[in-house]
Amino acid sequence: MTDQATVLIVDDEKHTRDGLRLSLEDDFDCYVASNAAEAMEYLTNDRIDVMLTDLRLGEDDGMKLLDAALAQPKPPVCIMMTAYGSVDTAVEAMRRGAYHFVTKPLNLDEVEILIKRALRSRSLEHENVALKQQVERKFSIEGILGQAEVMKPIIDTIQQVAPSRATVLIEGESGTGKELVARAIHNLSGRPKANIVSVHCAALSPQILESELFGHEKGAFTGAQERRIGRFEQANGGTLFLDEIGEIDASTQVKLLRALGEQTIERVGSSKPISIDVRVIAATNRDLAKMVEEGKFREDLYWRLRVVTIQLPPLRARKSDISVLADHFLKELAKANGKTYKPLGEDALPAMMNYDWPGNIRELRAAIEHGVVMSNSNRVMLKHLPSYLLNPRGLGIGLRAPSLIAAKDAATAMAPVDPTLKPKSDLDITEAEHQLILTALQRSGNNRTVAAEMLGMSRRTLQRKLKDLNMVRTHRRRVTLPQSAA
Ligand SMILES: Nc1ncnc2c1ncn2[C@@H]1O[C@H](COP(=O)(O)OP(=O)(O)OP(=O)(O)O)[C@@H](O)[C@H]1O
Ligand SMILES: [Mg+2]
Hints:
Helix content: 40-55%
CATH architecture of the largest domain: 3-Layer(aba) Sandwich
Bound molecules: adenosine-5'-triphosphate, magnesium ion
CATH topology of the largest domain: Rossmann fold
Strand content: 5-15%
Radius of gyration: 33 Å
Number of helices: 19
Number of strands: 16
Number of domains: 4
Mean pLDDT: 83
Distance between the termini: 82 Å
Largest sheet: 5 strands, parallel
Shape: flat
CATH class of the largest domain: Alpha Beta
Low-confidence stretches: 394-429, 471-486
Oligomer: single chain
């Protein structure tokens, strides 16, 4: 065994093979082959770092050998040799993935330098791939994307807690990825063959929830015509995901506490304990601690559930992830809708960064889907996204809700494209409105119909307001509304 790099020399002319071997064997482990079949032997059975091959190999085609070499699981760096005058073919080879080419007659020093350079670039490339994989493993496991600082401890916790049996409580606003995280924990749990079974606790009435979770015997209650296996039993050996755990009633809380503590359950209508081996993950978008304080949630159950807690931040607290999430959804949803992938237009991201995303990642996904479906150009532009993005917090500029604070806020949140439009701190409502209008016009490419739609006003109202705006601009006069408008 040696850690010298290996070079495979392929040429149908003996004197070229011998000359190359003589010149290279001080620095490299050399193998020689006179045709494609011999070369393939080496490529499949040995570790070849560099392949140096003639483009014309008697009967064989060097280009085919190149393709075959590059299709290997660990492809070598390929350098093509070509007769002077057939550089076109060599360029085609590079297009197919060859690293470089040399022309015959060979300059042996040149060949040696080229091989060394190729090896250096290959090891850099490998390092890059390894680093990238490391980063991706760390910050995007199981489809959970996110490079924002706030996500790093969360990813760590998921990896740490997954292989254990610990109960996990996932807290976060709606659409922050609670279910995704629950599935990630299950998938990484080392019980990959077992199921994850979900129960949406809010959707079921107390009695139905109880029998859903624990099952029931035949005749346990009116309508119980057959014995039914509950979700706990279905999840045996795997994971039970209890979504919206804050919604369960007092009696089911008691039963759940017992199931968690003793690892046994009883079907409704039976007193026979059944032992179960289930890992429980619960999620809530409510403040469970507060519910405990208010006596709406059992404290003992609360502590049982939150052996480990994961708090998912709202999207507005990790805005640096918006672009990577958006791009991910652009690809996913283009595919799902049978469209080709289009990147975001340059006006879309700033607006997305300025929006608060009350529905979090789910809302972002829906907005992107809107854009993917509505886009009729080769980009997804702001005008293709839902109009509320231009009109943050539902404030119609027709000023259906004429609050001075909100108007200022909206103007700020819109981050006007033109810096001269930056809102001033003593902004009055008219000025704020004008800035919103100008921004809408810029973003709609001066299309008044689209701008009006973005602003939530009729085209006619917009026309009228534009007339006012002109007056203000040409006379450099500020119109101040009476204080009562605030
Ligand atoms: N970090 C993330 N990376 C990629 N996609 C994500 C991420 N977080 C959430 N999503 C996607 O966003 C959507 C909403 O996520 P999920 O259903 O897990 O949220 P939730 O917190 O359970 O919401 P709810 O409280 O409304 O049930 C899903 O389509 C999910 O795949
Ligand atoms: Mg959910």
